[in-house]
Amino acid sequence: MTGETTNIHATAIVIGKTGLLFVGPSGSGKSALAFSCLAAARPLGLAGHLVADDRVLIAEQNGSVIAKCPPSIAGLMEIRYTGIVRLPYVSEGEMHFAIRPVDPATAERMPPEDEQIDITASARLLLIRLAATSANPLAVIMAKIGASFGESAI
Q1: Contact at 8 Å (CB) between 56 and 68?
Q2: How far apart are CA 22 and CA 143, in angstroms?
Q3: Other CB atoms closer than 10 Å to residue 30's CB: what's the count?
């Protein structure tokens, strides 16, 4: 990775070739939604890998947002009320979308289209708001972005 890295509180995964960065405050459901997406990928024949959970190193590289895992937590994800689990992982991945868990009781019903979020001072991603209680978050994300997560994705 080139350039300056910023350590952020988030969870990063890659499904197929699409990077998803789950952002939001502690306890908002980032890890649970990311884990659900990873679990849903396999039956669809899609590769799913954790990049990092809780701490993600973000850098810009040739106009792309790159997430990297601190070595001390590689392959580890905390599942609240269950503990730490080991998952298939990659040490870094390009991020394409930011996912923000929201509370359905207080969230806007129709968030802005093409909403973006600043990940660092100079890195932005398209934002998808997703109910923290979503039963099938990967299906919702796939419907929202309207793209395949396979070899031809992004």
Answers
A1: yes
A2: 17
A3: 24
